[in-house]
Hints:
Elements: E1 2-5, H1 11-20, E2 24-25, E3 28-29, H2 37-50, E4 64-71, E5 74-82, H3 87-90, E6 96-100, H4 109-124, E7 129-135, H5 139-147, E8 151-155, E9 159-165
Antiparallel strand pairs: 1-4, 2-3, 4-5, 5-6, 7-9, 8-9
Helix pairs in contact: 1-2, 4-5
Amino acid sequence: MELRKINPEDAVAQWEYTTVLPEDENGLTNPYHGVSLEEYKKSVLPTLISYEHPVNMPDWFVPETFYYLWDEDCLVGEFRIRHYLTEALRNGSGHIGYSIGKEYRGKGYGTAGLGLTIQMAKSIVPEDEIYLRVKKDNIASQKCMIANGAYKAGEDEEHYFMRIPK
């Protein structure tokens, strides 16, 4: 298994994954659900790549890098790392967001991919802990986080706020 940074060479597989990912699944937002391959290559892909080193973005915008989890020649999941946190992100979605394709769930990809992402995040994020948020009814994702060293740092009505010490 490997994490690959978003890139033009994998555009078709990334597009296939992105277009079937719902607009909001367990809190991971995807405004690109259903876009055409042409639109993905022309507009979406360059935009997502630019998020790593943003230019002319609003003050609230935080740099973010997109990665895809591959198992040999199959793209099985997406992982996003926010490079640092605003107060809203600190009390919200945190540093890492991720999804695993429905056909690959329950096979250890979430735990393995999150582990690889955490290793990358440790060299990117300045905070002493990696912040994550998970819906209370998303037991599978909670297990992935705990298996990677997370603990529950708080909660609201809908979510647990998880932390992983660096």
